[in-house]
Amino acid sequence: WVGGTLSGILMGSFLPEVLQRAAVITVYAMFASLLGSEARKSYKALLVLLVSAGVNSLLILAFKLSAGVSFLISMILATLFGALIYSDEEVFS
Fold first, then answer.
1. Are the CB atoms for 45 and 39 separated by under 8 Å?
2. What number of other Cβ atoms are within 10 A of residue 27's Cβ?
3. How far is it, in rounded angstroms, from Cα 58 to Cα 40?
4. How confident is the model at residue 54, as a pLDDT?
5. Distance between CA 54 and CA 51 in Å, rounded?
6. For residue 84, pLDDT beyond 90
7. Which of 6-10, 23-27, 52-56 is least confident?
8. To the nearest whole number, what is the mean pLDDT of the chain?
9. Contact between 65 and 58 (Cβ < 8 Å)
10. How far does CA 76 lie from the centroid of its chain?
């Protein structure tokens, strides 16, 4: 995981600015599609989605953080929230 991330950063730095910005959008789209499809199946996943969206919006609008930083923070906090509300049986079944 770390090696893939490092190589992505290094290789991405050679891309033109417009492609770098486009790649950021794909990360948002991937996260939204994964979480969105799961939210249709489970109310807990929907809660995680709402926490993530709420924190992300708060960080951007109230604290004026960049979209990338706010997305990262909101994703981590939503993941921690999900870890609290899901049992081991739900996660590993």
1. yes
2. 13
3. 24
4. 95
5. 5
6. yes
7. 23-27
8. 88
9. no
10. 7
DSSP 68-81: HHHHHHHHHHHHHH
Q: CA 63 → CA 25, 41, 54, 56, distances in Å?
A: 21, 33, 13, 10
Residue type, 18: V
As a whole number of angstroms, the distance between CA 66 and CA 9 comes to: 18
Vertex 68, ends 53 and 66: CA angle to 5°? 90
* Cα gap 42→70, rounded to integer Å: 25
Identity of the amino acid at 2:
V
d(CA 39, CA 37): 6
Band of residue 68 on the pLDDT scale cut at 50, 70, 90: confident
Contact 74, 59 (CB under 8 A): yes
Kind plus residue range of the DSSP H or E element containing 52: helix 43-61
